[in-house]
Write a structure and sequence with these properties.
The protein starts with 10 loop residues before the first helix and ends with a helix. It is about 70% helix and about 0% strand. The chain has 12 helices and no strands.
Length: about 240
């Protein structure tokens, strides 16, 4: 299943919007309630600790892809040390307090330059701190979104996919089995039009991530050739009755 992003629960977005609100209130000559809210919920709190994670992916620029990956992995690991229950309560109370002083619809209309990176990090943190399994595509797309903000060069999707496969191999057996089931369900939906021989080959190829089957040493070009061979074989069989 896919984890849905929520701007109402995104600590990075909430912090940035409060800062923008303080600026807007100050420029209009008002006593900003957002100042009190910011201090109350982000100074020496679990929300403040989590915001440091979001800050990490915006303060670094022009990194190499390798260094950017270190940043992302460190942030995700650090997120596992946060008190999820306390975060949930503080976010709920924060939204309630903002709504007392500001129109929430207007408050969340402000455009943020870091929105894409913040949304991607929120999703990854939720994925890695949840017992629910997400699809590999969602993990890959969100990692790429953050990497693109940290680096200067285009990010290779193939590289991110390979790293995810290495990470997958480090899981304990039960988690690998569950993840494999998600991959298999996705596979069955996407490749429903393939014939039985082609499906068998692809399933064996996917399964090679977690075992040592016949196709472990088969490359992508060999795999394509093998699939085309089975397609041709099926066509010849059909033509010849």
């Amino acid at each position: 299943m896919n984890i849905k992003h929520s701007k109402y629960k995104n600590t990075g977005i909430l912090f940035e919007l409060l800062v923008r609100q303080i600026t807007a209130d100050t420029l209009s000559g008002q006593d900003s309630k957002a100042t009190h809210i910011l201090k109350k919920y982000f100074v020496k709190t679990e929300l403040g600790r989590e915001y440091k994670l979001y800050e990490s992916i915006t303060k670094y620029k022009n990194l190499t892809e390798g260094k950017a990956e270190v940043v992302i992995n460190s942030v995700i690991e650090s997120s596992k040390n946060l008190n999820r229950g306390a975060l949930k309560r503080q976010k709920y109370n924060l939204i309630q307090e903002i709504s007392k002083h500001y129109n929430l619809e207007e408050f969340f209309q402000t455009k943020l330059s870091n929105y894409k990176s913040y949304a991607a990090l929120y999703t990854l943190v939720e994925i890695y701190n949840s017992e629910l399994l997400s699809t590999p595509d969602q993990i890959i797309s969100n990692k790429i979104a953050i990497l693109e903000g940290l680096t200067t060069k285009p990010v290779s999707k193939k590289k991110v996919e390979d790293d995810l496969m290495v990470e997958f191999q480090s899981y304990d057996k039960d988690l690998r089995i569950l993840t494999y089931k998600v991959l298999l369900e996705k596979f069955n939906g996407k490749y429903a039009s393939l014939n039985d021989n082609q499906k068998s080959v692809l399933k064996e190829f996917i399964n090679s991530v977690d075992s040592t089957p016949k196709l472990t040493n088969v490359g992508n070009d060999d795999l394509v050739n093998l699939l085309q061979y089975y397609e041709l074989l099926e066509e010849l069989t059909r033509v010849n009755g």
